[in-house]
Amino acid sequence: MFMQNKPSNFINNTVKCESCSLVHVCLPSGLSSSEMSLLETSIDKTTKINKKETVFKANDEIEGIYAVKSGALKTSISNRDGQEQILEFHLPGDMLGFDAFNQGIHTCNATALEDTLLCKIPIETFDSLCEKLPGLRRELRHQVGKEIAHNQSLLLSLGQQQTDERLATFLLKMSDHYKSRGFSSNEFVIPMPRQDLSNYLGMAVETLSRIISRMTESGLIKMDRRVVSIMDLEKLQALAHSSC
Amino acid sequence: MFMQNKPSNFINNTVKCESCSLVHVCLPSGLSSSEMSLLETSIDKTTKINKKETVFKANDEIEGIYAVKSGALKTSISNRDGQEQILEFHLPGDMLGFDAFNQGIHTCNATALEDTLLCKIPIETFDSLCEKLPGLRRELRHQVGKEIAHNQSLLLSLGQQQTDERLATFLLKMSDHYKSRGFSSNEFVIPMPRQDLSNYLGMAVETLSRIISRMTESGLIKMDRRVVSIMDLEKLQALAHSSC
DNA sequence: CGGGAAATTGATGACTTTCAAGGTGTGTGG
DNA sequence: CCACACACCTTGAAAGTCATCAATTTCCCG
């Protein structure tokens, strides 16, 4: 059918960073091997979060920085009225926890979309390692820059695009993501239900469903539940107004 | 009438950080006096940007980190199709430039809304200072955290709120901002035209104008061009669904 | 004081949400 | 292994929100 998105170390959750299939996209990617081994001694690689459970919540004090090994998470914020906005989906290799950098308090919730394995670096350890390792500081900046860029891109989408353009943009981003990790860019499985995706894209679930139907009829895509097939890349790109 | 938003050092643009009226909100706020003086020697305090000119553009290589001394800027991104989204307005004391942290390349444009004075720290200097000064690293993280929090908040607004709720949220944020800097929270001047504000809030100019009219009729606010008066704080907060 | 940008207002139509109903798939317990 | 319950997803109809086009007014700058 199509490639699974599970990394090979799904079972062995204490694999070394240098042997981890995610090493090139994860925090250690820019570190020297000596830096990596120093970092490695401080990583708790045993954190498991069950589906629908949270890694942290808004107003929690920061405990650490996390990297997703397998599974998937969403981060979201809400206001007093209960309005909620999903900010980002975190796939294997993605980092999270930077939202607490301002006050040491998390501003968002991180919830598992499926059973998820994490690497955790306690914040104190992380801080002291940053003192010692210039490479880690650089990597931190890259990761933070990525997060800022992601937010900016989503703002553009929510602020200026129509609903169908938003979905097209999202699908192209996912396609690129999987492609960059060696998976198929035409067929992939997204980890979130319609409800979460529609919230992320700032529209009603029904609207999302209708768009999917329309885009399927037009021969742009197929979406069977969470299995996405991109049928006409060029048209999809034209719809998204971007090269991605 | 109401207090001007010009800091007292508008003319003297080479005032020392410790004497600057913005010291408590700017980068040096968490530094010791020795750290501050070390930082100070590396700051170029003479950068002046005229209205409608840019500090940097998307795809520019990062030159430095900036702090707004007086005036105001907007940062914005756009895609191939020319769709543009304003990401943030930067008022005196705000920092910018972190968007280039991922690749060393700016992802957004920074444009002056009015004649603006900036403090500039060349990126190489900034990097090497970060090596030496733990306090600066901490401050950097705070500033970056603030930026992330701002983006998250705007995402919630664009993704989940109606147009009038978005404006209410924005006005309350501005009110809080000026209040925290010792200005009136009921009457203040915003630095951007309707066009920019409507773009920022993800709506058409006409829609913004209509909302203002409606909210004026309801006795919530008054807005004479850029002069904002908050007439009924509680109703405004209720509309925004938040305490801010 | 005049020209032009900025802002407001009105009419219309497109897009999106909401409410409602029905369909599809999955997982669990008998 | 089947059946049922439930969550997830889709579709339809109606209503509401917002954008667009157009015209007008207001204000600012030279």
Question: What does the model show?
Answer:
2 copies of one chain form a homodimer. With 244 residues, the first copy, chain A, is α+β, with helices and mostly antiparallel strands. The first copy, chain A, has 7 helices and 11 strands. In chain A, helix 2 crosses helix 3 and helix 5 crosses helix 6 (205-217). The longest helix of chain A has 27 residues, at 134-160. The model of chain A is unreliable at 1-12 (pLDDT under 50). At the A-B interface, strand 5 and helix 3 of A face strand 5 and helix 3 of B. The structure holds a DNA duplex (30 and 30 nucleotides).
Furnish the topology, listing elements before pairings.
2 copies of one chain form a homodimer.
Chain A: H1 33-40, E1 44-49, E2 54-56, E3 64-70, E4 73-78, E5 84-90, E6 95-96, E7 109-112, E8 116-122, H2 123-132, H3 134-160, H4 163-180, E9 187-189, H5 194-200, H6 205-217, E10 221-224, E11 227-230, H7 233-240
Helix pairs in contact in A: 2-3, 4-7, 5-6
Chain B binds a DNA duplex (30 and 30 nucleotides) through helix 6.
Structure, briefly:
2 copies of one chain form a homodimer. Chain A is α+β, with helices and mostly antiparallel strands.
Percent range of helical residues of chain A: 25-40%
- Shape category of chain A: globular
**What integer is the average pLDDT of chain A?**
90
Rounded Rg of chain A: 18 Å
Major β-sheet strand ordering of chain A: 1-8-3-6
The greatest interface between two protein chains, and residues involved on each side, is: A-B, 46 and 46 residues
Q: Multimeric state of these chains?
A: homodimer
Low-confidence stretches of chain A: 1-12
- Largest sheet entry of chain A: 4 strands, antiparallel
Q: Could you tell me how far the N terminus lies from the C terminus of chain A, measured between alpha carbons in angstroms?
A: 26 Å
Task: Give the beta-strand count of chain A.
Answer: 11
- Give me the strand/helix succession of chain A: HEEEEEEEEHHHEHHEEH
